Amino acid sequence: MKSVNGYKKTFAMAIILSIIVSVFFWANMEIVSSGESPGIPLKVKNKLCYVNLKDERSHMNKTTDLKMIYFVTPTYPRPEQVPELTRLAHTLMHVPRLHWIIADDQPACSDIVSDILRRSGLPYTHISSPKPYIYKESNIPRGVANRRASLTWLRDNVQDGVLYFGDDDNTVDLQLFDEIRQTKKVSMFPVGLIGTYGVSTPVVKDGKVVAFFDSWPGSRTFPVDMAGFAVNIEFLKPSASMPYIAGHEEDRFLVSLGLKLDEIEPLAANCSKVLVWHTKTAKYKKPSLKINLEKFNDSPKYGDFVSLLKETSRLGMAYLSSSNGTKTYVIRNRRQYETTGGLL
Amino acid sequence: MKSVNGYKKTFAMAIILSIIVSVFFWANMEIVSSGESPGIPLKVKNKLCYVNLKDERSHMNKTTDLKMIYFVTPTYPRPEQVPELTRLAHTLMHVPRLHWIIADDQPACSDIVSDILRRSGLPYTHISSPKPYIYKESNIPRGVANRRASLTWLRDNVQDGVLYFGDDDNTVDLQLFDEIRQTKKVSMFPVGLIGTYGVSTPVVKDGKVVAFFDSWPGSRTFPVDMAGFAVNIEFLKPSASMPYIAGHEEDRFLVSLGLKLDEIEPLAANCSKVLVWHTKTAKYKKPSLKINLEKFNDSPKYGDFVSLLKETSRLGMAYLSSSNGTKTYVIRNRRQYETTGGLL
């Protein structure tokens, strides 16, 4: 028994060392545009924040030989980021053999994102993938740098499994995971709440995809939403790439795979069911509050309240300032309220 | 052994019979306003659609003696209803000893809601609780009829446990469930993304709630959000009621319980953490599509596509009409598209 344990320990050490080495190299790597927009300086510096290959979910059967699903989520800081990732985590935590890749829009590794990944118990990869400088000013195209960085990590670290792009505000029925896990090349399925048709879907005839029903053709060969397809990682050729062209990310990516119409595998009962929705969360206008926290530091009685205010600011739900912003009040009872500073 | 089994069967039969009988009475019952808006005809006809007391989640320990949490969700039909309830189900499915009460705004029992409840594996109660006629024209106050009907069911059927009002678009951290389960009378905690302060919370001093931080005082004794408190069902007096007054539902309900400020139990590390968020999903404008499905009925080749269109309509994501609405197209390839009817 002792020698088996010895082997196990050596093996574990070897894995840990190789992760550390690859993290080091990757963190210093620069991803260069593969050329679909020549002349534009797309150099960005990505960082691999953390990789956890262990499934730490106690209720989940881990000895299964199911194919791994790599669920790629681009994200960016905003008041809704923590709740979005929290409820998406609750969905993914039900799925066996799922590795969650979150690629964040920020130059630094976000503790907030790390915490959510760690608490999920899922195997994960946390990437910091800031937008190239030239796109800094506009929000479009959103999520491309993140997906490109995730694809690079997959190409360098993963031999097989299934890739799925799932935004942090999408809703996915658990059944979809069972279905996409069987993807041989590229599978497709309907997505609800897209464009002006209510749904975007391939049209299936005799079990084959023959056309698409999507309210924005956009001169696309594959007019589908990012959440409307999954890809077997063995089919991810070195040529696979995603352009910085809003509205054409999905199509150009699928074209770059060399996908042919008759290779598409229709899922969700031959594209007759909706198992994923393009839900969008209403933007919460991040408020600026005028609160002098230093005044509170001298009075530890309200320490919990001050901690909450700091947490609110840390989670990106409000700006706090001692000089600018909305004047804030606390309410003692229905007839009596006073400025927050007046609490002291 | 045989006689023990015999007893078990008799006991199970007795329980099933009493459920059927109470369902029958309840379905024919009318709830009359308890009088906080005298003179307004608040009579509504509620229906108890289904009750399932069995926990059918295979991964969940069911022999625990934890207190039951009754999670009350008002809902109403809209394009986002199915995804909202689906992802909320994914959160609740992680919580041991939780009974989900969904009260729908419709006069009929919705199959769509039933399906989601059944698939969750949770114990549940499905109520149809239409708004009183006088509020039909306005959307405000939303969810009151539903919460009142749920309270009536709880009062008639449940002796102990904890009540929590959770809307279908809220986000709840799993830790909150562990905390509210210990509620003795009424517990309170911060809610993120509320009003213009980013958060709404009780202010705690020396472990006691002494004031509230909420951007809309509204002359309320307890200026808190619906998701900001939980109630021990033993504390739900017969006087407990919720008014049809927008913005005052929470406060009047808590006042009707006879709650005193020093009885409030602060949770979430003395109200210093955010464990629930008032996320709102952006409204998807339900489209009207001009599609003549009858034409397709004659041509079974596109049966799967027709099924999807019917499903889209059934789930409330689009109106379909053979005479009115947006003209729809299908895309054969990037250069060729034709009207949906032209498929044939």
Automatic annotation (TrEMBL), chains A, B:
What CDD domains would the database entry show? GlcAT-I
Active-site residues per Swiss-Prot or TrEMBL entry: E250
Q: What class of enzyme is it?
A: transferase
Cross-referenced InterPro entries, in alphabetical order?
Glyco_trans_43, Nucleotide-diphossugar_trans
What residue ranges are annotated as transmembrane? 12-29
- Keywords carried by this UniProt record: Glycoprotein, Golgi apparatus, Manganese, Membrane, Metal-binding, Signal-anchor, Transferase, Transmembrane, Transmembrane helix
Topologically, how does it sit relative to the membrane? Single-pass type II membrane protein
Q: Which reaction does it catalyse?
A: 3-O-(beta-D-galactosyl-(1->3)-beta-D-galactosyl-(1->4)-beta-D-xylosyl)-L-seryl-[protein] + UDP-alpha-D-glucuronate = 3-O-(beta-D-GlcA-(1->3)-beta-D-Gal-(1->3)-beta-D-Gal-(1->4)-beta-D-Xyl)-L-seryl-[protein] + UDP + H(+)
Could you say which EC number(s) this protein's record lists?
Answer: 2.4.1.135
Quick one: where is this thing mainly located?
A: Golgi
Q: Does the keyword Transmembrane helix apply?
A: yes
The pathway that the record names for this protein is: Protein modification; protein glycosylation
Describe the family membership recorded for this protein in Swiss-Prot or TrEMBL.
Belongs to the glycosyltransferase 43 family.
Recorded protein name is Galactosylgalactosylxylosylprotein 3-beta-glucuronosyltransferase
